[in-house]
């Protein structure tokens, strides 16, 4: 999988890309991540990428020309299934959406900044808009990192235990069950006996029941994308 991220502040993504699962995926050759500084595609000698909004109002807007220049440069060498804009008013990111996107070969993620992007980009160049929550951040870099991580961990071979991703919360429309590790008893707080029993079917039944119970308690309105 190839993911190209367009940003005004590429340094914000450096730490994320060079640690943990994301770095391991790159080292294994399972994913290719490329960060593109939008200022490199500016039409101004001062590398300007934003301007005032027509009609007035507070805040600056990302200009259409630098973004299109970057998109067209990338599309000369690769065919992209999605050009994604991280936006608070986009479709909420869900596990089913992550599952779907993880199957694609090439995607572009555009990080918004300032007051947003020229609307013509959204109308003619963006194929999907994604939000990680109903709140506003200073830029799209953190949302882009969240989306990237959600996709990469689903790629076969990235996790040492491939079944781990399949048993994550939300994969089956339920939140995950409680998990425990050693010691079995800590200051009188004991691990449920069923988990120590060695009876696989009983353990799986207990986990399912706990997931149902937790979902009813914590997500009574249902999980987006689960069909519930």
Quick recap:
The chain is an alpha/beta fold and 228 residues long. It folds into 2 domains: 151 residues, Alpha/beta knot (3-Layer(aba) Sandwich), CATH 3.40.1280.10; 50 residues, Trp Operon Repressor, Chain A (Orthogonal Bundle). 32% of the residues lie in helices and 19% in strands.
Structure description:
- This protein is of the alpha/beta class and 228 residues long.
- It has 2 domains: 2-152, 3-Layer(aba) Sandwich (Alpha/beta knot); 169-218, tRNA(m1g37)methyltransferase, domain 2 (Trp Operon Repressor, Chain A), CATH 1.10.1270.
- 32% of the residues lie in helices and 19% in strands.
- It has 8 helices and 9 strands.
- Strand 8 (185-186) and strand 9 (189-190) form a beta hairpin.
- The mean pLDDT is 92.
Write the layout of secondary structure elements.
Elements: E1 2-7, H1 14-17, H2 20-27, E2 32-37, E3 50-52, E4 60-62, H3 64-75, E5 82-92, H4 95-101, E6 106-111, H5 119-124, E7 128-131, H6 141-152, H7 163-166, E8 185-186, E9 189-190, H8 200-218
Parallel strand pairs: 1-2, 1-6, 5-6, 5-7
Antiparallel strand pairs: 3-4, 8-9
Q: Which radius of gyration do the C-alpha atoms yield?
A: 21 Å
Helix content: 25-40%
Any idea what the CATH architecture of the largest domain is? 3-Layer(aba) Sandwich
Q: Please tell me what the overall shape is.
A: elongated
- Counted by DSSP, the helix tally is 8
CATH class of the largest domain: Alpha Beta
Query: Distance between the terminal alpha carbons, to the nearest Å?
Result: 31 Å
List keywords for this structure.
single chain, 228 residues, alpha/beta, Alpha/beta knot, Trp Operon Repressor, Chain A, 2 domains, five-stranded parallel sheet, two-stranded antiparallel sheet, 8 helices, 9 strands, elongated
């Amino acid at each position: 999988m190839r993911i190209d991220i367009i940003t005004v502040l590429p340094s914000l993504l450096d730490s994320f890309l060079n640690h943990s699962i994301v770095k391991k995926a790159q080292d294994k050759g399972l994913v290719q991540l490329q960060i593109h500084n939008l200022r490199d595609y500016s039409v101004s000698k001062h590398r300007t990428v934003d301007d005032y909004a027509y009609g007035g109002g507070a805040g600056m807007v990302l200009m259409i020309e630098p973004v299109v220049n970057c998109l067209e440069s990338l599309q000369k060498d690769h065919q992209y299934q999605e050009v994604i804009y991280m936006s608070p008013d986009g479709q909420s990111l869900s596990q089913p959406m992550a599952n779907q996107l993880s199957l694609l070969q090439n995607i572009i993620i555009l990080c918004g900044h300032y007051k947003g992007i020229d609307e013509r980009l959204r109308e003619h160049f963006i194929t999907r808009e994604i939000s990680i929550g109903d709140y506003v951040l200073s830029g799209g870099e953190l949302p882009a990192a969240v989306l990237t991580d959600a996709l990469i961990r689903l790629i076969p071979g990235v996790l040492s235990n491939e079944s781990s991703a399949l048993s994550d919360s939300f994969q089956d429309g339920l939140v995950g069950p409680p998990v425990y590790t050693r010691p079995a008893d800590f200051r009188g707080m004991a691990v449920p006996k069923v988990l120590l029993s060695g009876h696989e079917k009983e353990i799986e039944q207990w986990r399912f029941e706990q997931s149902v119970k937790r979902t009813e308690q914590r997500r009574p309105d249902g999980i987006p994308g689960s069909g519930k």
